[in-house]
Amino acid sequence: MDEDLFEPEAGFAGLGLRPELLRALVSLGYEEPTPIQRGAIPPLIAGEDLVGQAATGTGKTAAFALPLLQSLTRGETEGPHALALVPTRELAEQVSQAVHRYGRELGVRVLPVYGGQPIGRQLQALSRGVDVVVGTPGRVLDHINRGTLHLGDVRTVVLDEADEMLDMGFAEDIEAILAETPTERQTVLFSATMPPRIDAIARRHLREPVRVTMGREEPTPGELPLVRQSAYIVARAYKAAALGRILDVEAPTAAIVFCRTREEVDQVTETLNGRGYRAEALHGGMSQDQRDRVMGRLRGGSTELLVATDVAARGLDVEQLTHVINFNVPAAPEAYVHRIGRVGRAGREGVAISLAEPREQRMLKAIERLTGRRIPLEKLPTVTDLRARRLELTRASLQEALDADDLDRFRVVIDSLTDEHDVEQVALAAVKLLHEAAGGDIDEPEIPSPLPPRREQPENRGPRPDRRSRNGEDDVTRLFVGIGRRSGLRPQDLVGAIAGESGLPARDIGAIQITDRFSLVEIPEAAADRVIKALSRATIRGKRPTVRRERYNR
Ligand code: AMP
Fold it and tell me: 185: CA distance to ligand 1 center in Å?
């Protein structure tokens, strides 16, 4: 493998970032900038306005967050020095967590501001002083109108996922907010698509912006030989479990699992080893010697799975590889083509599997456009599928043993047992022992099918994975309702039943997820007991389903 790969110039240091940020990126395990970061960070540091065309998953958050932090001097101004506007509270939380992580060493004070959260907490934080505000347009405007947020010191405004903000009807709010910021500010606009309305905003509010678009190299003809491609849509919380199941069913001889960061490499390796796989991590930071040893174990068959980042796997060429698995959709479609070029060599069949979060489906489409091949979406194996697969493996091991002719020495065991039992009973007991020794039946909860992509959900219906109030109690509860699609259930049936029976206003009902047999509904914890009681008496679609708090831990 090429030793120069880890030269600082090839990484973030070459983009001119300050040491505190470089150290944060090292600790997060980011090895090299994504294409949008490479294109956007230098002009943003130089103070230019910028229009970036990039979807979720391309690394766009760091592309604008790092330059914001580059020029941060705490306490220099009274009001925030940067404002990022985002379409949903979910994104507000994510972006502000990212700013916090990158700027930890700089002591950055960042505040997410969105509707639905008690305003008191936001007011307190604002009065103590913040450096960066990340908010949804409606709530930001609310604060401006109350006089609790002053934007006179803002040097940079970011409009993130601008197309979504326009789709959600925030155009006027955005105009009103921009009018409150200094005219000499830097303005940055990111959008996955560039319809004329976005262009119009860019023309009106940005000054000679630099334009950064994700590059589109054509793949070399024939670069996707004989590769069976597929993708699974999985919510982030269930990705590791989903990966385990997919591997159980695929049973690869030798596979490489690509992750985004070193941290993720370590977590995935640990999960897979816990599930009984022989998985090894391949890091950019490992010495050549260590890497050679890992590769040797893969070639020799004592390791079956490599877990690696792109950088660590560069130049890696293993004849035996049968599967390439993308634990995330790669940030650039070209990277996907390079990754899966590692299987299906020399006329052999290869398999490329990608796990995509609901928000990342757009990136799968970009890959399909680049390669001209469709990536079919598959359903995750269910617990029943896995059990059937394990029984099949047990059967196959028995078949193999039957084909060998070294069974005679076990005859005395059969002979002595058949005095009391018939041969079939003895065979069944032997199969049971073999099955259990190979891991036995799996006993794990089902993975719920993911919520639809965020674009289809209004702001108050978004998933809220980690909501905890200050005292550590969930302020949102998920209810399990034992009726699903098979009974013809639609979201409006649940909203109608909950609102009608318990009096909880429809606007307080959060994300609704409907699977074949059951549904999950988010409601405020404070109303949970009342709703459960009321729903237990209700008839929905002719049935009286079980209603309880969801037990599955995420
Ligand atoms: P985003 O497109 O901003 O939503 O980022 C997608 C994911 O990629 C986030 O989980 C980031 O933490 C991660 N990420 C961003 N930049 C990099 C990088 N250069 N290397 C590895 N992971 C990254």
Answer: 26
Q: What is the CA radius of gyration of the chain?
A: 27
Query: Looking at ligand 1, which atom is closest to the CA of residue 54?
Result: 2
346 and 306 share one domain: yes
**pLDDT by residue (tens digit) across 485-527?**
888 888 888 888 898 888 888 888 888 888 777 888 888 888 8
CATH number for 498 = 3.30.70.330
Nearest to 488 by CA among 545, 532, 537: 545
Q: Which residue has the tokens 């004592």?
A: 302
Return the pLDDT at 225.
56
The CATH number for 331's domain is 3.40.50.300
Counting from 1 in the atom list of ligand 1, the atom nearest the Cα of 98 is 12
Question: Structural domain tally of the chain?
Answer: 3
Domain residues for the domain of 323 are 227-383
Is 57's C-beta closer than 6 angstroms to any atom of ligand 1?
yes
pLDDT tier at 67, thresholds 50, 70, 90: very high
52 lines ligand 1 (CB under 6 A): no
DSSP annotation of 113: E
What phi, psi does 407 have (nearest 5°)? -95, -15
Residue 64 in domain? yes
Is residue 497 in a domain?
A: yes
* 80-120 pLDDT per residue, tens: 999 999 988 888 999 999 999 999 999 999 999 998 778 88
**For a pocket test of ligand 1, which of 17, 30, 60, 267 has the largest count of ligand atoms closer than 8 A to its C-beta?**
30
